[in-house]
TrEMBL record:
Family annotation (PANTHER family): CELL DIVISION PROTEIN FTSA-RELATED, ETHANOLAMINE UTILIZATION PROTEIN EUTJ
Superkingdom of this protein's organism: Bacteria
Protein name: SHS2 domain-containing protein
GO biological process entries: cell division
Length: 340
């Protein structure tokens, strides 16, 4: 089955990102359109009256990018989704859905009748070890709000998944047995464990890009716009501003690092013999100068920059225009790479 071209649209708290891809072979794509816009305050999670405002911003992103397709794969914010790997006895694919139906409530924080859930079989051990199923659930009204936003923007949602599932597809090489994704956005950092290309564990912490900016504001007595600019321009470069920006951001980085380590340790304590050997960094904060080296140093582990553009053909102009922006577009690119 050849995949159809589609738009991947990531509505983040800070910005909306769009990537349009045309499949050109197995695991290869050609870039159609790409672009981003600032997300209006409140986002999709704000009150219902806000949906029209978000829809207009999504519509603007599509229009200005020049995208031709209207079929969209979208991501639900990680902190609003519960994903669990459930172990069940060996059974047929058809039986799994039924079996889960009676168990779903014990894994999700909302009543089953107010939730939308789906599952994916991720491991099947014919030798008697049973099977592992990834169960993903979200509140029905959240899903409805997302679908409405795209509907109002004249788009059709053909797939919904989580931000980390999309990122895993876009930036984690399938031949890495066990790795971790760290997506540092504006308000939240999403941490995901990926086993052979498949997301198997996810959590979110409310410390991300805005926390770095606030730390600079407080330490140097700057207005937030100026602090944001210093963060983007100097980042963790100790040679700039006598290292003051780096110093200010360090405590925030320590919090994130500790959570990354905790997440990896937690997973490995439950799965003896499996070892996280690589961290892939994505999200807007991955663009902050030197952040990759700092994280790698603090973790004592290899940290790669998540770049979805490796597998996307584009002309030379676009390549140079998008240089370094891969991690920012990782979720949107991963969504557009879905085969269904
Ligand atoms: N060019 C850049 N250089 C440095 N930092 C950047 C750059 N672009 C964005 N950022 C930072 O990345 C953060 C936003 O990242 P991103 O766009 O991934 O967030 P989001 O997806 O909208 O938010 P969230 O995932 O929390 O909902 C901001 O804190 C911003 O300062
Ligand atoms: Mg994001």
């Amino acid at each position: 089955m050849t995949a159809l071209p589609k738009l991947g649209i990531d509505i983040g708290t800070a910005s909306i990102k769009l990537v349009e891809l045309f499949p050109v072979g197995k695991g290869k794509w050609k870039l159609g359109a790409i672009g981003s816009e600032i997300t209006p305050p409140g986002g999709v999670l704000g009150n219902q009256n806000n949906l029209g405002v978000i829809a207009a911003a999504v519509g603007k992103t599509v229009k200005e990018s020049g995208a031709k397709n209207r079929r969209v794969a979208a991501a639900l914010p990680e902190e609003q989704v519960s994903s669990h790997v459930v172990e069940i006895p060996l059974m047929s694919d058809e039986e799994v859905k039924q079996a889960l139906q009676w168990q779903v409530e014990q894994y999700i924080p909302i009543p089953a009748d107010k939730a939308v859930w789906s599952h994916e079989i991720i491991r099947r051990d014919e030798a008697g070890g049973g099977m592992e199923v990834l169960l993903v659930a979200a509140a029905k009204n959240l899903v409805d709000s997302f679908v409405r936003v795209f509907d109002m923007a004249g788009l059709e949602v053909v797939a919904l998944e989580t931000e980390l599932m999309a990122t895993a597809r876009a930036v984690v090489p399938a031949d890495v047995p066990l790795s971790m994704i760290v997506d540092i956005g504006a308000k939240s950092t999403d941490l995901g464990i990926v086993r052979a290309g498949q997301m198997v564990f996810a959590r979110t912490i409310p410390t991300a890009g805005e926390a770095f900016t606030r730390a600079i504001e407080a330490a140097l007595g700057l207005a937030s716009g100026q602090a944001e600019e210093y963060k983007r321009t100097y980042g963790f470069d100790t040679q700039k501003m006598q290292g003051k920006i780096t110093e200010a951001m360090k405590p925030v980085m320590n919090v994130i690092t500790a959570e990354v380590r905790k997440t990896g340790d937690f997973y490995m304590s439950k799965h003896r013999g499996e070892q996280v050997k690589l961290v892939t960094l994505s999200g807007g904060v991955a663009l902050v100068p030197e952040v990759v080296n700092v994280l790698s140093g603090l973790l004592g582990m290899e940290v790669a920059v998540g770049n979805p553009f490796n597998r996307i053909e584009m002309d030379k102009n676009k390549t140079s225009q998008l240089l370094g922006l891969g991690p920012f577009y990782a979720v949107a690119a991963g969504l557009a790479m879905r085969t269904s």
